[in-house]
Amino acid sequence: MGSMSAVVVAVLCAFAMHAGLLVTNAQLSPTFYNETCPTLNDIVFNVVSNASLTDPRIGASLLRLHFHDCFVQGCDGSVLLNNTDTIQSEQDAIPNLNSLRGLDVVNNIKTAVEDSCPETVSCADILAIAAEVGSVLGGGPSWDVLLGRRDSLNASQALANTSLPAPFFTIDQLNASFAAQGLNLTDLVTLSGAHTFGRARCSTFINRLYSFNNTGNPDPTLNTTYLATLQAICPQNATVDNITNLDLTTPDQFDNNYYSNLQQLNGLLQSDQELFSTTGADTVPLVNSFSADQTAFFANFVVSMIKMGNIGVLTGTDGEIRTQCNFVNANSSATLLLAGVASKVNLVAQSK
Ligand code: HEM
Ligand SMILES: *[C@@H]1O[C@H](CO)[C@@H](O)[C@H](O)[C@H]1NC(C)=O
Ligand SMILES: *[C@@H]1O[C@H](CO)[C@@H](O)[C@H](O)[C@H]1NC(C)=O
Ligand SMILES: *[C@@H]1O[C@H](CO)[C@@H](O)[C@H](O)[C@H]1NC(C)=O
Ligand SMILES: *[C@@H]1O[C@H](CO)[C@@H](O)[C@H](O)[C@H]1NC(C)=O
Ligand SMILES: *[C@@H]1O[C@H](CO)[C@@H](O)[C@H](O)[C@H]1NC(C)=O
Ligand SMILES: *[C@@H]1O[C@H](CO)[C@@H](O)[C@H](O)[C@H]1NC(C)=O
Ligand SMILES: *[C@@H]1O[C@H](CO)[C@@H](O)[C@H](O)[C@H]1NC(C)=O
Ligand SMILES: *[C@@H]1O[C@H](CO)[C@@H](O)[C@H](O)[C@H]1NC(C)=O
Ligand SMILES: *[C@@H]1O[C@H](CO)[C@@H](O)[C@H](O)[C@H]1NC(C)=O
Ligand SMILES: *[C@@H]1O[C@H](CO)[C@@H](O)[C@H](O)[C@H]1NC(C)=O
Ligand SMILES: *[C@@H]1O[C@H](CO)[C@@H](O)[C@H](O)[C@H]1NC(C)=O
Ligand SMILES: *[C@@H]1O[C@H](CO)[C@@H](O)[C@H](O)[C@H]1NC(C)=O
Predict the structure, then answer these.
(1) Which ligand has an atom closest to residue 73 CA?
(2) pTM score, whole prediction
(3) Which of 169, 173, 319, 326 is most buried as measured by Cβ atoms within 10 A of its Cβ?
């Protein structure tokens, strides 16, 4: 290699490394809205805690909404976008259909935030704060939510179909799903602990109740007492998709009972029980340690939530601050830019 090209390569490498550092570090901050929306956290807390008075499940639903946002092209509010001529909503993807809750509460938060701080706070950041408030209202940990995300200009129903883990996934499939987001097995076990509150529909675990994996028998890793309870809630060939608590002991509390449930074969979803019942898996000792130590679970949960909240975020001048979370801004800069480019192309074409 000639010395000149070696220098060029070195400079390019240094630039790439610098750019890489910017991508991973120079982004979100807990004080992002300190000057521009100092009451943001209080506004979100007030709307969500008010909603929780009539809907004790809302904190869980909002936490899940942030997860379903982050795993699909990053934490960019894409899950909130409704169907339009150009958007195929993620809300209609298999993991979300008839399952997402809290979209109306997010809109109520946004309305209250726009009242105090117009055109300033992204919907993606509102989801991140609402998830933390959901944890706190359930008695779980609080943390300084990193902020400064911007909202996407599009959505991907295709990615929502493929990137979100399914409740019938094995440990290897769960590991692969999380690894694709830069999350490891510790994050998997920790974040699955969110199933310490909230509900699930029969359709998400009925595969375990009657003929698991085409064996003609129930899932052998399901506690037989719990099995009988669940079979009563979810009869075969039922016409109604009943719901039940993800945590049979403390349904609305954010605590570490999720892990002691797993130790007693009382995990609701196959994806939950796999973490403890897969012989020799690296997840088993983690389940045992979180079951024994709620403080350790909470500390890990904060770390993994912040890690998840950093996935694929848009910052700086990327994306936009939506004024209504269900729609991209009319005539946003991107739309104008595209329209402008298109008309210039047309003019050039016409002038030739
Ligand atoms: C590990 C892979 C995961 C799978 C397979 C999974 C699957 C599911 C399923 C099937 C439901 C029930 C949905 C319904 O029936 O409508 C559910 C509920 C829930 N999930 Fe997960 N989940 C996973 C990870 C997570 C993570 C990482 C979080 C958050 C950090 C989370 C938070 C929740 C919450 C809070 C609920 C209850 C929501 C409500 O009551 O509205 N889950 N999950
Ligand atoms: C932002 O506000 C918080 C809480 O009021 C305060 O602790 C922090 O010092 C402020 N940070 C900046 C950079 O202003
Ligand atoms: C509080 O919740 C009730 C419904 O439960 C709603 O009608 C009301 O507008 C909410 N108030 C605020 C300030 O969010
Ligand atoms: C967005 O779609 C949801 C259904 O997914 C609907 O309930 C809601 O009213 C729509 N929002 C708006 C602002 O049209
Ligand atoms: C959404 O926009 C991003 C950024 O412009 C782009 O990379 C991605 O391919 C788009 N996704 C869809 C489904 O159009
Ligand atoms: C997502 O899955 C649903 C249900 O299978 C299907 O109807 C829809 O076409 C899928 N969407 C995309 C974009 O692949
Ligand atoms: C989890 O997935 C990662 C990435 O694909 C892989 O390197 C690792 O070996 C997997 N771990 C286990 C325990 O399967
Ligand atoms: C399902 O059965 C197949 C063999 O038919 C087996 O390889 C696989 O491990 C089973 N899956 C579970 C989750 O038990
Ligand atoms: C459920 O439906 C299947 C066929 O669709 C039938 O073989 C089975 O007996 C039914 N089970 C019950 C409990 O009705
Ligand atoms: C579940 O749904 C069935 C109908 O499919 C209903 O008869 C039953 O009462 C429901 N059970 C519970 C516990 O909600
Ligand atoms: C099944 O669950 C009950 C509590 O609900 C527990 O006492 C029992 O030990 C569990 N059985 C097994 C095999 O873990
Ligand atoms: C997994 O991620 C956590 C942070 O969420 C980190 O502390 C831990 O070292 C990672 N584990 C491995 C094996 O990389
Ligand atoms: C967006 O621009 C189009 C064309 O210039 C115009 O017809 C429409 O009213 C604008 N919409 C909004 C919300 O400003």
Answers:
(1) 5
(2) 0.90
(3) 319
